[in-house]
From TrEMBL:
Record protein name field: Sporulation protein YabP
NCBIfam families: spore_yabP
InterPro entries: Spore_YabP, Spore_YabP/YqfC, YabP_sf
Single GO BP term: sporulation resulting in formation of a cellular spore
Gene3D superfamilies reported for this sequence: 2.60.40.2000
Coiled-coil spans in chain: none
Provenance organism: Anaerosolibacter carboniphilus
Lineage: Bacteria, Bacillati, Bacillota, Clostridia, Peptostreptococcales
Residues annotated as signal peptide: none
Length: 96
């Protein structure tokens, strides 16, 4: 994890428009995504976005910006350590 590029901006902001468009700044890495769940590492911790028909419409990790579209119904933060210990990834999902 230390070898990943750190977002240029240390600020972290969320803008949720009508629960249909979520703009996020301060993004370091997108860990996983599908149409129902997106796991995003930010400068403030790991953000889990849950919803339906989620789609990443903009991804720019150099600037640290992500835009999601779809129906958002949950935004939850957690620590990075929890993500590392959980074993997120292909094998982590198989043996959940």
């Amino acid at each position: 994890m230390e070898d990943r590029k750190v977002a240029k901006s240390k600020n972290h902001n969320l803008i949720l428009e009508n629960r249909g468009k979520l703009s996020i700044s301060g993004v370091e890495h997108v860990d996983s995504f599908n149409e129902n769940t997106v796991l995003i590492e930010t400068v403030q911790g790991v953000l889990t976005v849950k919803g339906t028909e989620l789609n990443i419409s903009k991804l720019n990790l150099e600037d640290g910006n992500v835009v999601l579209e779809g129906h958002v119904y949950s935004l939850v933060y957690s620590d990075r350590e929890g993500l590392q210990n959980k074993g997120v990834g292909f094998l982590g999902k198989m043996f959940k």
